[in-house]
Amino acid sequence: MIKKLGVLALCSLSAQAQVEVLADGTLQTQACAYGRGSTAITGAKAQASAELIRFLQGNKSLTMQSAQQQLTTDLTDDATSLYEQQRSVMLEGLNAGAVPLNYSVPRLNGNDTCMTVSLNPSNLGEPVEQNWQQATQNISVTVIGQGWQKQGKTALSNAEQDALQRAVSQVVGVWLTQQHTQSSSTSLSISDDNESTTMQELIGQQLSSHSEGLIKEWQTLQSKQLENGGVEITIMAVVEKAPLIQQASQLLSMIGSPRVHVIAPEPLKTELKTWLNEQGIEVGAAASLELYARSELVKRDNNRQLRLIVDVRDLAGNIYGKWQNDPSLMALPNDENVKTDLMAVHLASESQSAALHRALTGAFTKVVARGGLVREVLLPSKKLTQPEKLYDVLSTLGGVSDVSIHKRSDYTVASLRYKGDTGEFAHAVEQAMATITANTLSKIIVEDDFTLRYQ
Amino acid sequence: MKLIKKITLSAITVALLAGCQTKPGSSTQVAKVSNRASNAQVAKSAYDFKDHDITIPAYFDTQGLERCTFDVNNETDSCPLKKPIVRMYFDLAQVTGSGIGVDAMREFDNNNLLLMVENQFAGINRFRIITRDDDTISKEQQIFLQQQGAKAAAKRAEVKALMPDFIVKIDSLRTIKTEGAYSDWADYTLELTTGVINPQTREKLSHPNLGKIRVKSEDVRERSELQFTRLSGRYYTGFHYDDSAHVNAVFNDMGSRGIDILLTRMLSEMPATAQVLGIKGNKISLDRGQNAGVLPNETMIIFSYEAGFVEPLGVAHVNPSRNSANGEIIRWKDSNMADNVKNKAENGIYRPASGAKIFAVSVGTPANFLESRT
């Protein structure tokens, strides 16, 4: 068949490519475009994709098509039913350029460059494969959401909310995964499903709860009742790509934005700093987060093992993540270089350093998950005209959470979390405070990323 | 008259009853608890066997070879070739109290005795032993690190040590006795017992039961060598009973002897068993060799096994190769069954019929083991 098509392609520039259906339901076609190089390759790809769309539009049933094509291969029932399930998704996906296509190596064929392009319906539903290279604006995904009645909201609206969050989360997940796969310098562990899923879900949830503008449109495909009055709905949602990328980038940079003070013995310090640098995290002494590492030698008769403990903490003492090495990795005879030697081996160990990086990624993700960094706002107690309102005022600020208020000598101290940088926060506080403080209150002074003080 | 009759009858009855009483049955007898030094027991050479010597030793293990994967790290539990992984401990009980020569017994380095036990036990291939020679291993790791660099060392270090199934602990007890009048002599005793412990459940296993081994100083030194003279309550001349180096030298020899005896008991307690694949004339071919702990010059009893009954056929002298062994039947048992097999084997290769199997089981420590391996 391919051979035949190849001959056809030779004859004409706009050769009438045909779609072949393989036994596992894979749709395969060949397309050629005149010329050489990337332009021709792109042309061939586009042509093949268009051919696949035409095929899908025209044929609702794969068996019918295979009969028409007089294929020698026997389609399995699974492949046929899979095709029927996925047809609409494939169609939309192809139109949007968000469906994974397998491209063969380009072949030269006379003046043309030819490519074989295949589409396997069983690969769908794996959003990781979505092609973000294409300049599409919208991504459509089909997701299932579940909801139960609570807090005055109906089960259906909770289910819809859940489904929409999942839709955004899925799209963000793909985007994040691709961002990280493309950038080799970052080591957000894609291979570790749990870690990256947490991150994707987290950012997805934040995005979907923050901005409804991300979902362009959606429609319910199916709904069914669950036990305990719950509802499960299947929706197809169209997620807009541009604002998503913009906002996700901001969220990522939020993880990267806090400065980190590294307190560690060498050569662990260099290793940690290098990693932070690769993640785009600034290192400095005046920082709101501390990466605190300590090492100790463990005596084992005449030999020594090394114990390393690294934790990520903020200035308020919250610990976001902790890593401990496996001291049993190696024991060396006790001499003056034993600590350096052991540390070198531990850091050179792939499993150990992977575990360290995983723990650090988890810790920084947790900072975002908890609602940003902890800050303290110090107000002179006597200048607070309406101290009882301080809590409410601060709580209503966008991006603020976990507010708590206590007294420290002459100051009323508000401890809270804020998603965003300190300058932005200072500005927001300054505006909010005007209503509940005396006129004589000074300007807010940013002492460091942790402490903001009024005089 | 009547009364006399009654009395007479009663008396006769009593006498009869008394006559019926016999001596009560007994299945036990009084025995003396031995305090003598233990000795090594080794197998007789197959050439020295007489017909009545050809009997089946205890603890043969004939089954389950078909379940073996022959992958040393992934062997199934039911495979008879699977050797338990053990870590060994040698514990020398602390000596407390005071007395002549007691102080010198306190300082004793049992680490080297432990390594000796490990080496000897590894050689008989009944266990897989995780060494506790940490110093040598860490030294090697240091040299490896110097020569190959941190990356290679880290990669190597990812491979973890074996996990022990059991721990084998040798417990010991040391005593000293001095006797004599003008001139004293020291009489040291070392008692060893071995426990196999499941470290998770803390269960001490019943098998292998190596019993107690008692080594006396007179087994390793002439009594005259341990003679000493004291003057005004202080050492004057003769054996340095108050010097730990001299005392330890004696204990090391005693420990070493104890380990030798331990080994021979282990070999009797855990004999090597193999299946006879075929008999050609007097030659036999076995399906296991070094891998099942068959040692050179092994004396093995050949027996047929059918429906749970065993029938000795003869005694063979066997030498192992890595995964199989070959031997020669030196003496056939004087029995119909043995004659039958012998006749068939003389006319070609005899292979046991289905249902019956022929096995070989080692008698104990090979006759020349103590000379060549200890």
Q: What characterizes the major β-sheet of chain B?
A: 8 strands, mixed
CATH topology name of the largest domain in chain B: Double Stranded RNA Binding Domain
What is the subunit organization of this protein? heterodimer
> What number is the mean pLDDT of chain A?
72
First and last CA, distance of chain A: 83 Å
Write the CATH architecture name of the largest domain in chain B: 2-Layer Sandwich
Q: Count of DSSP E strands of chain A?
A: 18
Number of helices of chain A: 12
Helix content of chain A: 40-55%
Structural class of the secondary elements of chain B? alpha+beta
Mean pLDDT of chain B: 86
How do you describe this structure in short?
The complex is a heterodimer of chains A (455) and B (374). By secondary structure, chain A is of the alpha+beta class.
Which structural traits does this protein have?
heterodimer, A: 455 residues, alpha+beta, Dodecin subunit-like, Double Stranded RNA Binding Domain, 4 domains, 5-stranded antiparallel β-sheet, 5-stranded mixed β-sheet, 40% helix, extended, B: 374 residues, 2 domains, 8-stranded mixed β-sheet, 8 helices, 15 strands, 28% strand, globular
Can you describe what's shown?
The complex is a heterodimer of chains A (455) and B (374). Chain A is 40% helix and 27% strand. With 455 residues, chain A is an alpha+beta fold. With 374 residues, chain B is of the alpha+beta class. Helices cover 29% and strands 28% of the residues of chain B. Chain B contains eight helices and 15 strands. Chain B has helices at residues 2-20, 102-106, 111-124, 134-157, 217-220, 244-269, 336-346, 369-373, and strands at residues 85-92, 128-130, 166-180, 184-197, 204-205, 212-216, 227-231, 234-238, 273-280, 283-286, 298-306, 309-320, 325-332, 349-350, 357-362. In chain B, the strands form two sheets. In chain B, strands 1, 2, 3, 4, 5, 6, 7 and 8 form an eight-stranded mixed β-sheet that branches. Chain B has a six-stranded antiparallel beta barrel with strand order 9-10-13-12-11-15. In chain B, helix 3 packs parallel to helix 6. The radius of gyration of chain B is 29 Å and the shape is globular. At the A-B interface, strand 13, helix 9 and helix 10 of A face helix 4 of B.
